[in-house]
Design goal:
Strand content: 15-25%
Strand order of the largest sheet: 4-3-2-5-6
Distance between the termini: 51 Å
Shape: globular
Number of strands: 18
CATH architecture of the largest domain: 2-Layer Sandwich
Largest sheet: 5 strands, parallel
CATH topology of the largest domain: Aconitase, domain 3
CATH superfamily of the largest domain: Aconitase, domain 3
Number of helices: 15
């Protein structure tokens, strides 16, 4: 009987020939990601750190990204604590403010590789499945334990197989695919399950795959993963990363799945997740002409070069509506520099957009771009929970970069397919 991706990786990492669905296994992750919450995590184990130190200085990847630059004395004190921890324990992989959002940093710096196990104290750690990594979020207590021991346990998850067929229409994006899937499956439909994407994945860019795995947690998935193909290999080569064939892991052709779904990409249309859950998905026609007071383009979900490219193509030589605000938030410093070099950032700024530093800030209402009561935001982020952007009386709608760009021009929700470039 064939094995799924999750079964293969967890068997290898736990030193076993094979593992069964539901089996408990102990593994040593390749990396542990933490961000601004590192201060709170190490605060749980102060005496133990003094006595034992960290288990591996190369285990940790620490990125300051949630509130950057520090907005309050409390934030600044937390950052200071983290910097002192990094220095004292000789943490090898530390990225200070301005480098970018933690998930993008792990991805573009080559920390995530095929067949690895990476855990992080952030639920969107599942993003790295885009490059064939078993990646998942853990809580702060588990993260604290990992800093000391380097070990954790998993229950081998069952797997949902999703087959993608055909090509997307113009200005329909991977964000529309994943929102459509989440709307079908529900916010907990893949609870503690692995999700494998199969089929015509050659028609999806790496940016698109990253968007889709990033939002795997929004359907409850433990991991979401794509196979490594030529497009993945080209991504690695462009970042001077050499991947050996023996590193690559994928499911057997006769693997057994709990559930199988198939989507015709040509039939996917622009969709929007309406308040206050990500699975409250509606067609763009249902929400057309709804006023938006703020538009957010960026975050770890859609803050990459291709996202700014499509927005710039739609907005070029035009002005955003005086009735809305457009915030642009690159996922990393390198993306911001590339987008500047290509002219995308300048195009958006000339149209009236406001450039924010590479970080998380407005996505979770931690810093910049907070909403007022009664306001509505159309965002490329991954969550629209009540209060997510700092105000429980505001509304957040989730959409693709193309939809956000077209809507920013009108100050109302618009179908990007109808916007002439």
């Amino acid at each position: 009987m064939g094995r799924t991706f999750a079964q293969k990786v967890l068997a290898k990492k736990s030193g076993q020939e094979s593992v069964e669905i539901g089996q408990i296994v102990t593994v040593k992750p390749d990396h542990l990601l933490t961000h601004d919450n590192t201060a709170a995590i190490i605060g749980k184990i102060g005496p133990e750190l003094e006595k034992y130190g960290v288990v591996r200085p190369d285990l940790n990847i620490i990125v300051l990204d949630h509130v950057i630059p520090a907005a309050t004395e409390k934030n600044a004190a937390g950052h200071k604590t983290i910097r002192e921890f990094v220095k004292k324990h000789k943490i090898q992989n530390f990225f200070d403010i301005g480098e970018g959002i933690c998930h993008q940093i792990v991805y573009e710096k080559g920390f995530a590789r095929p067949g690895m196990v990476i855990v992080g104290s952030d639920s969107h750690t599942c993003s790295y499945g885009a490059v064939g990594t078993f990646a998942t979020g853990v809580d702060r207590t588990e993260s604290a334990s990992l800093i000391l021991t380097g070990e954790t346990w998993f229950k081998v998850p069952p797997t949902i197989k999703i087959t993608l067929q055909g090509k997307l229409q113009k200005r329909v994006t991977a964000k529309d695919i994943i929102l459509t899937i989440i709307g079908d499956i529900s916010a907990d439909g893949a609870g503690y399950k692995a999700v494998e994407f199969h089929g015509d994945i050659q028609n999806l860019t790496m940016d698109g795959r990253f968007t889709m795995t990033n939002m795997g947690i929004e359907m409850g998935a433990k991991i979401a993963v794509f196979p490594v193909d030529e497009i993945t290999q080209q991504f690695f080569k462009s970042h001077n990363i050499i991947v050996q064939p023996e590193e690559i892991v994928w499911a057997d052709s006769d693997a057994v799945y709990e559930r199988e779904l198939t989507y015709d990409l040509g039939q996917i249309e622009p969709v929007i997740a309406a308040p206050h859950t990500v699975d409250h998905v509606k067609s763009i026609a249902e929400l057309a002409d709804k006023t938006v007071h703020q538009c957010l383009l960026g975050t770890c979900t859609n803050g990459r070069l291709s996202d700014f490219q499509v927005a710039a193509e739609i907005i070029k030589n035009k002005k955003i509506s005086s009735e809305t605000r457009l915030l642009i938030l690159p996922a990393s410093r390198s993306i911001m520099q590339e987008a500047m070099k290509a002219g995308y950032i300048n195009t958006l700024i000339e149209a009236g957009a406001v450039l924010l530093p590479p970080g998380c800030g407005p996505c979770l209402g931690a810093h910049q771009g907070a909403l007022a009561p009664g306001e509505r935001c159309l965002s490329t982020a991954n969550r629209n929970f009540k209060g997510r952007m700092g105000c429980k009386e505001a509304e957040i709608y989730l959409a693709s970069p193309a939809t956000v760009a077209a809507s920013a021009l009108a100050g109302k929700i618009r179908d990007p397919r109808k916007e002439v470039a």
